[in-house]
Amino acid sequence: MALQMSITLSQLFSDTIYKIPEYQRPYAWAEKQLKDLWEDFEDNGFLQASDGISSPSNHYMGTIVVNQKGEKLESGDRYVVYELIDGQQRLLTLVILAKAMCDRLRNTGDASDGSRAKNLYNRYVSRDGDAGLRKIVLQGDDDVYLWDVVLGPNQLIKQPATPAQRRMRNAYEFFKAKLDGIGIENVRALSDNIASRLLFLRYEVQSELEAGLVFETINDRGKQLSQMDKIKSYLVYLGSKLNNKSFVDLVNQRWGKVMENVALAHEDKDDTEEEENQLVRYHWIMLTGRPRDYEVHRGVKNQYNLKNPTVLREAEEYVNTLEEASETYRQILKPLGHGFLDDWKRIDPNTTSAIRDNLQALHRIETLANFIPLFFAARKRLSSLTDFWEITRLCYLLGWRVYKVCNRRSDTGLAVLSGLARDLYKNGASELQRVLGDIKGIITEYGSDQDFESVLRVNFLSDLEKRHLLYEWEKHCAAKQGTIALSWDTVKENCEIEHIFPVVPKYEWSTPQSKERYDKIISWLGNLVLAERTFNRSMGNGFAYEKLGLKPPAPVDPETGRELTYPNSGLASQRRLAYDQDLKAIAQLELNNAPDTKILDAIEQFVQRRTDELVKFALKHWAI
Fold first, then answer.
1. What pLDDT does 297 receive?
2. Which of 131, 270, 423, 462 is deepest in the core (most CB within 10 A)?
3. How far apart are CA 294 and CA 304, in angstroms?
4. At residue 571, what are phi and psi to the nearest 5 degrees?
5. What is the phi/psi pair of residue 391, to 5°?
6. Which secondary structure element, helix H or strand E, spans residue 277, and what is its range?
7. Longest dimension (CA), the chain
8. Which residues are CB-contacts of 59 (< 8 A; sequence separation ≥ 6)?
9. 252 falls in which pLDDT band (50, 70, 90)?
């Protein structure tokens, strides 16, 4: 292993080409890391030219690990081609910065700035804009995007297709904004100082086996290592100590796919470290049944150590199952995504759709996490799509009935669920009936029909729980009417929970006791329904006859032109109310100015009946 001491950025890119292998983490720097780097430039005086009295400070950027892969000859020039094993995040960021500086300098119209920009571009980006002589090269579509949109001489307008592409574009925009905000003399100073005052250590290894030996002792990345990084680092080190290149290659190959799946599962996130940690923990729970192991990399080191005679076989199993788990993780997190369950041996569209519905419901009620290790094991060991559906169905029931409606602790049954995941993974389908029975046992103990009904009747539900229940009721009503229910995203964005009889009514009660009785009745579950926001805000406090449209003219939705009444609602559950005879009877009492006691008796009868109806629906819809 060759170590070069204190090499500058300019020296690092002198007659070199860096290729980032496919297995490496996609570009991950977000605004936080970019801000930290820019602040380092400011703190070290990189934006100020030397005045002969004081000068900028040198700034150490850490260690770069490379493996020489050959040479490239072009027009008489010789370039050393390196595979960049560690340091790709920092170097790619600095190349993007160099491109942003080139663009800023070219725009001044000054010949010397144009020459400076050309020199910068040729050294750090590409010689004369030649895509074949680029100084840093990624793999696949990210590489195409990097050149077309960020580094190339003719920046194209293309929407990013991956989180890494979005981050590369954002990094360029970040530096462009920073450079536009300072004077051109500061840009010149920065271009000089990053060339000569950014210092690195460059380790050149002879193979990736050797690289594994330095991974455990060297970490100078711009981001803290995630559990995922630490585990990969140790496994490469393990392969190096075993002198087994095929295992190191396996780790690198599998890790590329794992990181791709994590990125696809969280496309909206710039930093997925937390999600990476979650994935390796869920996978570890599947393997061990231990839900309290949060420092998974320590567990991996203890389990797969050199004293274990079967360490290679076990470590290979760990790596292979982690990749499989990452694919399941992506599908669980994105049930509406492309290729959902299409790798199952026997595809049944109806069962696949039912599984997707269960997973979406778990997302809506925010109780997915405890079940992911079990889903990993089920996808790995079960051959029947129907069996997998039954597991997702029972987990959804447990999440809804136990964690949400009955408000049990979020770790209720966690030890049992974790053990079931481990047993199903180790023993396969022979454990299925016990797994199903134990999940049903948790539901029966902590979310029995009696407890479930009791909570629903007193309506001790959070807003999220009410919205979920009413959405399932909405889908039920739509099915009965032969219409297509609104999507959850539409409901979440455009709908609110309406009190059929409002919290602030127009009624004038004859006694305080009547008002107290009314206030109690309107809190019952049967007084709630989903309503479009425009309806609720225009008609929410209206009389029943107004909501039913029995006394025109009714207000009109300015966007759709529809009358804001139950018969014309876009929601099936509100349209159902338009045909409710009890509600119509109350509306007639209102129109006839009936005594408030008579109206109140009718309201109580209506809300009680509808509460019974919703509870009956819930017990059937979420039956064990």
1. 93
2. 423
3. 17
4. -110, 130
5. -65, -45
6. helix 273-288
7. 102
8. 40, 41, 44, 46, 197, 198, 199
9. confident
**Residue showing tokens 């290790």:** 373
- Measured in degrees and rounded to the nearest 5, phi and psi for residue 198 equal -85, 120
d(Cα 557, Cα 532) in Å, to the nearest integer?
10
CA 553 to chain centre: 47
Residues 6+ apart with CB under 8 A from 541: 502, 504, 505, 506
Per-residue pLDDT tens over the stretch 166-190 = 999 999 999 999 999 999 999 999 9
Residues facing 530 on adjacent strands = 497
pLDDT in tens, 31-75: 999 999 999 999 999 998 766 556 788 999 988 989 899 998 877
Give which of 599, 494, 578 is closest to 536, Cα–Cα: 494
Taking the CA atoms of residue 446, residue 282, residue 30 and residue 23 in that order, the dihedral angle to the nearest 10 degrees is -160
Nearest alpha carbon to residue 509 among 522, 499, 500, 519: 519
Strand partners, 70: 81
Under a CB-based contact definition with an 8 Å cutoff, are residues 280 and 215 in contact? no
Q: How far apart are alpha carbons 300 and 251 in whole angstroms?
A: 14
Q: Which two tokens stand for residue 509?
A: 């009660």
SS3 7: strand
Query: Both tokens of residue 227?
Result: 């559990």
What is the rounded distance in angstroms from the CA atom of residue 521 to the CA atom of residue 607? 7
Q: List 201's β-bridge partners, or say none.
A: 63
| DSSP-derived 3-state class of residue 39 | helix
Query: What is the rounded CA–CA span in Å between residue 311 and residue 244?
Result: 12
Give every CB contact of residue 594 below 8 A, 6+ residues apart in sequence. Answer: none
Q: Which carries the bigger pLDDT value, residue 131 or residue 26?
A: 26
- 10 Å Cβ neighbour count for 160? 17
Q: At CA 78, angle to CA 73 and CA 80, rounded to 5?
A: 100
Q: List, in order, residues 6 or more apart from 45 with CB less than 8 Å away.
A: 54, 55, 56, 57, 193
Query: Three-state DSSP class for 474?
Result: helix
- Is cis: bond before 553, omega within 30 of 0? yes
CA atoms of 279 and 281, how far apart (whole Å): 5
Of the candidates 291, 275, 364, the one whose C-alpha atom is nearest the C-alpha of residue 325 is: 275
Whole-angstrom distance, CA of residue 331 vs CA of residue 96: 33
Report CA Rg, the chain: 32
Residues 279, 283, 287, CA angle at the centre, nearest 5°?
165
| Helices 227-241 and 273-288: angle between axes, nearest 10 degrees | 60
**Greater model confidence, 463 or 241:** 463
d(CA 228, CA 255): 9
Q: How many CA atoms lie within 13 A of 356 on its CB side?
A: 16
| DSSP-assigned letter for residue 567 | G
- Please tell me the distance from the alpha carbon of residue 344 to that of residue 363, in angstroms, as a whole number: 22
Residue type, 546: E
Q: How far apart are the C-alpha atoms of 323 and 344, rounded to whole Å?
A: 16
612 CB contacts (<8 Å, ≥6 apart)? 526
Dist. CA 96–CA 88, nearest whole Å = 12
Opening angle at CA 119, ends 113 and 125, nearest 5: 120
